[in-house]
Amino acid sequence: MKFVERLGWIGVFALCGAVPALAQDGGEASKSILDIIWAGIEWPTYFIVAGSVVALTLIVEHFLTVQRGTILPVDQVKQAKQLIENRSFRECLDGLKKSRTFFARTMTAAMLHARHGFDAMHEAAVEKSGELSGRMFRKVEYLNIIGNLGPLLGLLGTVLGMIEAFAAMGEGGGSSDAGGLAGGISKALVNTMLGLTLAIIGLGFFGVCRNRVDSLTTAATVEVLDLLEYFRPSAKRAASAEAKAKVPPAD
Q1: Residue 57 domain flag
Q2: Domain count, the chain
Q3: Is the pLDDT of residue 1 over 60?
Q4: Is 73 helix (H, G, I), strand (E, B) or coil?
Q5: Which CA distances in Å does 137 have to 32, 211, 229?
Q6: 241 in a structural domain
Q7: Which residues form the domain of 60?
Q8: For a tag site, which of 103, 134, 200, 213 has the least CB within 10 Å?
Q9: Which regions of the chain does DSSP assign to beta strands (E)?
Q10: CA 83 to mean position of chain CA atoms
Q11: What pLDDT digit, counting tens, does each position of 72-93 carry?
């Protein structure tokens, strides 16, 4: 997972540095590309740019907030396990209430139902886990929406550009030079390029972020359910029966 996170950050910084890198290049090719992009801007381009800003914001926010330290802190799990094994349930609950991690909130929801029995605790943990993970998945889902809208907005900008190019040729009585028509088409295809770029970034990071959420939240839920086994009545009876079986009978 560390490799995937690093790859994600590299992609974000590469995208942020793409335009400045082109601007710093003194070659004629770089300048002409920027000129074509600037000249090919249509009103759908503004939506593509806005979508790019939102996508980058979601990506950065995801990698800053969805981490093992905010989902499943190792030290917190060890401390909770130790307190439960020592039967310091109140101390464990009070400590977990002060934390906002995924593990702490799920474990707190389960322990608050302790008076209703093990089944109620198990059900509360599963429900809380589904609620918290659902929020994370819904936030990541915006990347999927933006990624799918990118090509459509790009195509819309391209169609508008093509309409303008052929309309100009029609006004000239159809006598338009090939160079002018090619230049108009080139400008129109700028929106397609921008839309596809947004789609690649949005859908690519959507898959990465979704897998990170699924992996971390599943691991946290498993840890919670494992700790809840200490509250299972059948386990206590089995342990008591096993202990009694080891005691030698009195003479």
Answers
A1: yes
A2: 1
A3: no
A4: coil
A5: 41, 10, 28
A6: no
A7: 2-232
A8: 134
A9: none
A10: 33
A11: 999 999 999 999 999 999 999 9
